[in-house]
Amino acid sequence: MEGRWRKWRVPLIILAVLVIFGSIYVTSRPRERRTWVESGLSELLAPAQTALSDALYEGRAAVAYVARMGGNARENAALKQQIASLQAERDQLLEYKRENETLRRLLGLEQSRPYRLVTAEVIARPADSWFDFLVINRGSSSGIKSGQPVLTEAGVVGRILSTTAHTARVLLLSSPRSATGGLTRSGGELVLVEGKDDPQGSLLTVEPLTRSAHLQVGDVVVTSGFSDIYPKGLPVAQIVSVAQGLDDSSEVARAAPFVDFGRLEWVSVALTSPTPDEAAAVAGGGDGS
Amino acid sequence: MNSIWDLRRTALELGGFALIALLLLLVQSALISGLFPWGGYRLGLSALVVTAVAARRGAGSAGRLGLLIGLTSDLFAGRYIGLGAGSYALLGFTAGTVARRVYFDSSVGWMIVSACIGLAQRLIYLLGVAAYSAPYHLGDVIFRQAVPEAVLNALLAAPAYWLVRRGWFGRGLGGARVGLE
Predict the structure, then answer these.
(1) Is A134 exposed, middle or buried, given 0-12, 13-18 or 19+ CB atoms closer than 10 A?
(2) Rounded Cα gap, residues B66 and B32, in angstroms
(3) pTM
(4) b/e A231-242 (16+ beta carbons within 10 angstroms → b)
(5) Which residues of chain A are within 8 Å of residue B44 when distances are taken between CB atoms?
(6) What's the Rg (C-alpha) of chain B?
(7) Of A121, A183, B128, B161, which has the maximum CB count within 10 A?
(8) Interface ipTM > 0.85
(9) Cβ–Cβ contacts within 10 Å for residue B101, how many?
(10) Mean pLDDT of the residues in chain A
(11) Do A23 and B81 touch (CB under 8 A)?
């Protein structure tokens, strides 16, 4: 028995190595569709991951509450002040919005596409791809589809890469596979924001799309809205350093993302197409409102 | 007769290892990732568990456990499927072979061995990723990620050493030392 296996040992090892290299090659590109084994594993682990994440979140909240107890009154006063100032700002923005809509109508410009946000909890992060992906506890049953943008109040997180019924995988901006079109807020320069060059995910690379572009330290990069993925004007990162590119005629900048990719707990997915319920309501003759 | 018993024992071992791999993936992805985002460095339990099993049960078992841990991790990540499996299996096997020759009699020895194993696994994984697609610089991969993570993970080695001494991670708990039976 032993001898028979020994004879096949070397061919089996060679076969295993070939299978491994082939598998790595095939799965080295982002895929929208996942195999049933991968989906099954995600679905199997999702409830336990959600429970663990919830427990962790509650524990942190409790610790933070205890730590902050003394400063509640001070914080309350500061927040009241902040609410008053935000209220005034909101009134002003509403006025600008009304004015903007009127002007766009007068100029015959298309209105920006509306989207609905779905909040989701980050339930897992692959151990070997910390700054590439994360997994959220909402999936196709909540209307989430691949390609939809993922945001927080701070800015852009990334986009949906693939979904199962109850989970979705988010490709982070910090991933070396991510590239997003952007605009500098002050100069309006078209740039490409990429996650390459920094395995720690703390800085993004900003490359201008035109040679004459001039990038400045402190400039804020926002989404350009030229792709089908991200709506226009969402904050992405702030430029922290500028250097000459490889060909000396262009610049390359490093930018600190507004989102802390290491500490994400909750995110919002912008649903850019109707959810299954909404679609069913429309198909069934409902008003869809 | 013996071979049937061996087969049964291996199947049982693989079943147990599959459960360990799933549990480890759950804890690592949902709990550790949320608890320890220190400067972006991740605390990895996998290398430590593989090292511990290598120490208690030898190269073959550690290689099989490494394969399962790496495979579940790869399937969950959905990318480079086989890279984690291959690297953990290789390192489990190496750790088991090293364990036969090194007398693990202090937590310092454990720290050094588990740090080296963790470092080697991360290096193989990241270099594999870089070779296939991601445009990382070699210096960044080594000095900004693999080495700090190995140092961080080595801190776990002392409590793990205590657990191994108490008899966890393998047969004959508290019995003969790793690979020296």
Answers:
(1) buried
(2) 19
(3) 0.71
(4) beebbbbbbeeb
(5) 127
(6) 16
(7) B161
(8) no
(9) 8
(10) 81
(11) yes
pLDDT digits (tens, 9 = 90+) for A234-266: 889 999 988 876 666 678 888 999 988 877 888
Of B22, B40, B128, the CB nearest to A202: B40
Cα distance between residue A232 and residue A198, in whole Å? 26
Six-digit token pair at A150?
A: 């993922």
Write out the DSSP string of A183-216: EETTT--EEEEE-TT-TTSS-EEEEESSTT----
Question: Are A27 and B137 a contacting pair at CB < 8 A?
Answer: no
Residue whose C-alpha is closest to residue A57's, from A276, A216, A264: A264
Contacts of B42 in chain A (CB under 8 A): 127, 130
Pair B34, B51: CB distance under 8 Å: no
Q: What is the per-residue pLDDT for B19?
A: 92
pLDDT digits (tens, 9 = 90+) for A26-70: 888 767 778 888 888 888 888 898 888 888 888 888 887 887 776
Query: Do residue B33 and residue A125 have CB atoms under 8 angstroms apart?
Result: yes
Q: Are A119 and A266 in contact (CB under 8 A)?
A: yes
pLDDT tens column, B94-147: 888 887 776 556 667 667 777 787 788 878 887 777 777 666 667 777 777 778
CB B109 within 8 A of CB B42: no
Task: Give the position of tokens 């198909």.
Answer: A283
Q: Tell me: the pLDDT tens digits for A180-197? A: 889 888 888 889 898 866
Chains A & B: contacts with CB separation below 8 Å: 139
**Angle at A57 (CA atoms; ends B46, A130), nearest 5 degrees:** 40
End-to-end CA, chain B: 24
Strands A133-136 and A190-194: unpaired
Do the Cβ atoms of B145 and A200 come within 8 Å? yes
**pLDDT digit string, tens, across residues A5-30:** 677 888 888 898 899 888 888 888 76
For an interface test with A, the pick among B25, B76, B87, B140 (most A C-beta atoms closer than 10 Å) comes out as: B76
Chain A 29-48, residues with CB within 8 Å of chain B CB atoms: 29-31, 34, 37-38, 41-42, 45, 48
Q: Which two tokens stand for residue A235?
A: 């904050």
Gap between the Cα atoms of B61 and B56, Å rounded: 9
**Tens of pLDDT along B67-84?**
999 999 888 888 788 888
Alpha-carbon gap: A46 to the closest alpha carbon of chain B (Å): 9
Q: Sort out which chain A residues have CB atoms less than 8 A from B27's CB and list them.
A: 52
Cβ <8 Å between A19 and B82: yes
SS3 state at B7: helix
Nearest to B28 among A20, A28, A127 (CB): A127
